[in-house]
Amino acid sequence: MSARVGIEFVPIEGALVRLLGLIERRGFEVRGVRMAERPCGRSATLSVDVSPRDPGRRLDVLEQQLRRLHGVQDITMPTAKAPA
Fold it and tell me: Which Pfam families is this protein grouped with (predicted)?
């Protein structure tokens, strides 16, 4: 199961390396990355397609860890859909 994680952050030196490194260290594979910087230059958004390396990896734990990083302003995680 893969998911797209949206991250809004301050694009300071080393921020991108910290974000991607944390995702990999927490047991997720990075499957795709897209980044856009806001015109003001004070904020950027990163969309990362991730998939867990094993079934024990949880997106909610990854979200908590990402929120703790310096410069992270907001995280958008996929929501579970109710069965039809």
Answer: ACT_5
Length of the chain: 84
Query: Which residue's structure tokens are 């856009």?
Result: 36
Q: Which domains does the chain have, with CATH numbers?
A: 3-76 (3.30.70.260)
Q: In what order do the strands lie in the sheet with 28-37?
A: 28-37, 44-52, 3-9, 72-76
Q: Judge if pTM exceeds 0.85.
A: yes
Residue with tokens 């995680």: 77
